[in-house]
Amino acid sequence: MRIHPFVDGNGRTSRIMATLILLLHNFNIADYFTLDEYYNQDRQAYVDALKSADKNHDLTIWLEYFCQGVLYSIDKVKSEVLNLAQITSKYDDTIELTPNEISVLTLLEEKIILKTEIFKI
C-alpha cells in the first residue's frame, strides 16, 4: 500500500477526491472552503503525515491530520459567518440565508459536539 501512487499530483488528486466524497454525502464544502489552505500552512506536518502512512502502512496519523484540516476549515468558516452575522445584524436582516446555508450553520453548531466526541478516543 502506498499513499503516493503517482509521480506528480498526488496531493491535488487526493484533495479533489476528498471533496468529491464529501459532496456525494451532501457536504458541499466547495462553496465554503478548500482543504488546501490548512495543508499549505505547515508543509512539513503535511509531509510527515504522508510519510507515516507510507512507512508504516497505517493511515491513522494521516487520517487524524486530514480530519484536523477539515475541522480547522470548518472553524474558520464558522468564525467568518459569526463575524458576518454581527455586521449584518446592524442592517435589519438585509441578507437572507438560503436553506442550504442554514443547514451548514446548523452543522457548524453541531460540529462542536462532534469535535469533542472525536478527540475523546
What would you report as the Rg, rounded to the nearest angstrom? Answer: 17 Å
Count of helix runs: 5
**Overall geometric form:** elongated
Distance between the termini: 26 Å
Q: For the report, how would you describe the main beta sheet? A: none
**Beta strands, count:** 0
From the helix content, strand content and strand pairing, which structural class follows? mainly alpha
Strand content: under 5%
Order of helices and strands: HHHHH
Helix content range: 55-70%
The stretches of 5 or more residues where confidence is low (pLDDT under 50) are none
Give an account of the 3D structure.
The chain is an all-alpha fold. The chain has five helices and no strands. It has helices at residues 10-24, 36-41, 43-56, 60-88, 99-118. Helix 4 packs across helix 5 (99-118). The protein is elongated, with a radius of gyration of 17 Å. The chain starts with 9 loop residues before the first helix and ends with a helix. 7% of the residues are buried.
